[in-house]
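Lab notebook: predicted structure, single chain.

Context: the supervisor wants predicted structures on file for every construct in the current expression panel, including those that have not yet been purified. This is the next one on the list. No modifications to the sequence; it matches the entry in the shared construct table.
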Amino acid sequence: MKFTDNPYVDYLLFSLGVILIAWIISRILKNIISRYVRKSSRDLKIDPTKFYFFRNAINALLIISAVIVIFYRIPELKTFGLSLFAGAGILAAAIGFASQQAFSNIIGGIFLVMFKPFKVGDIITVGTHFGIVEDITLRHTVINGLENRRIVIPNSTMSSETILNSSLTDEKVCMFIELGISYDSNIDLAFSIMVDEATKHPSFLDNRKPEDIEKGMPAVITRVLGYGDSAVNLRAQVWAPDPITGFNLKCDLFKSIKERFDQEGVEIPFPHRTIVYKKD
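Prediction complete. Output recorded below exactly as produced.
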């Protein structure tokens, strides 16, 4: 390993060369795996999650291997490395304490890939975070929060949190359209408007089975939830193909139902209070 008359320049060039080679190999393997995953996911319907995790693990191993080669080939660093191993007891305790969270994230990532509570492309809710899973790395899971902003959550957190997976077995979702009408308004008219607006929406999904249709089960189920201080609370159960479409459908229905209520005299009341003054 001699490129110039200055050994330190040689060490620097060698280190840069090793890092460059590791980076090139990493890019080649990443492109090969990504191409295979895209083709397999399209043609064979294979879950790409494990391949993404495998790709990230290979990148980490290449980086570790490059560091080991650099330490082994440069005498000063090799001596330093042997000195570290000589004090392995103290070093191991220090590293173990400092890296406890890192190892926890790695183990958490392995469990996520093995037990598959979610996969890349699923729509999930973790705590207050909602979005589409984009990647699972050795350390963290990346979620697209639907505002094109990425939410990075450590794998140890993902393994311990309660996860709401909207894509695990069936993406269809039932949206609850809930609102209140005044006590003077006609409940049946309000229900008919809610059903009519829901069924004519382009994203509406009729989730009834053939036997349900034969029995006369309605496509939109309506219920009176109870009586509030100033309103009768109503609910319509409307199905949509997936959670994102369902959210858009719900927002559209709140607008169109309000407009129909205004046209046909169904009142959505403001809260009001009756105050009685008593004389001594």
